Amino acid sequence: MQDRITRHTVTVFLRGEFDLSRGSEIADRITGAIGRAWPGEPILVDFADVTFFDCFSLGQLLHARDLATRCGVDLRVVHVDEPLTQRIMEITGTDEVLGVGPARSVGWPGSPQSAARGLRQETDALQRGSSPPGR
Length: 135
Prior knowledge:
2 domains; four-stranded mixed beta sheet; 6 helices; 4 strands
């Protein structure tokens, strides 16, 4: 899947398994996206189609995030649906570092406050047993 570039974001879509053999692809793709990002706008890394993600790949993602930060670009990870990937990010604390969240309810582009508001709305909806906004 091709990356998507809009006025407000660059979205990097990842697909498949990311282990030692493909982990460096993450850093390469994000490095390319940094050069295409608008100043002050985020890069979203979409994990919706990721079926496996190991610690080597997580290291590559963190390396790319550090580069993005040095370049003044905000990098966020969205749609981490695969349970083992969620668990790796939770255990290591990188879910918070990477701003892991759902892009649909966050409403990018936006401030950290709008992101928090979107996550609160989704959490509230899930607790009520209804569908989150935007789904």
